[in-house]
Known about the structure:
Elements: H1 11-14, E1 18-24, E2 27-33, E3 39-40, E4 47-48
Antiparallel strand pairs: 1-2, 3-4
Amino acid sequence: GFKVFIDPKSVIYLKGMQLDYQDGLHGKGFVFSNPNATSTCGCGESFSIT
């Protein structure tokens, strides 16, 4: 396991977020899934919350 440090101001935006590691045909890496996101970019690296 590992520890993730988040500054107090960002916690409200990341509440409920899941972090997963995927290794597949399109490459490997971490995938963020945030149920609070109202929109995401095509690459999946950024999101908006309204």
